[in-house]
Amino acid sequence: MISTKGRYAIRILLDLAQHHTGDYLPMKDVARRQGISLKYVERILPVLKENGLIDTQHGKGGGYRLTREPGDYTLWEILQLTEGDMAPVACLKRGMTPCERAPECRTLPVWEGYYRLTADYFSGMTLADLLPAQSESDEK
Q: Which domains does the chain have, with CATH numbers?
């Protein structure tokens, strides 16, 4: 299950992508547009900043902005940063000692396949894919 932290991180970054002009955006505006409390948003921002997904500037004209183009952010990257290891079972988590039952475990291939499907699905989708399509009149 993906928590509100992961879902909100995607929404925050998507909002920054939608308003991606190179300028810094006040997070209070993003929080308001997304209907998320600023206090909760401020709990998500550090992990995004520490991992280089956003840049910040303090003072007048300050705020937050993306560090890359929207097409360079996969949902998998965002979810892994905010949710941690998304393995469906403990034996597939990074750094875990292989289960002693793994060689004869009949369900392990099921969980490996599910994990691969999840990773492939979210890895194949970027913030740019979620942005509204621009009409010809928007491009002029």
A: 4-131 (1.10.10.10)
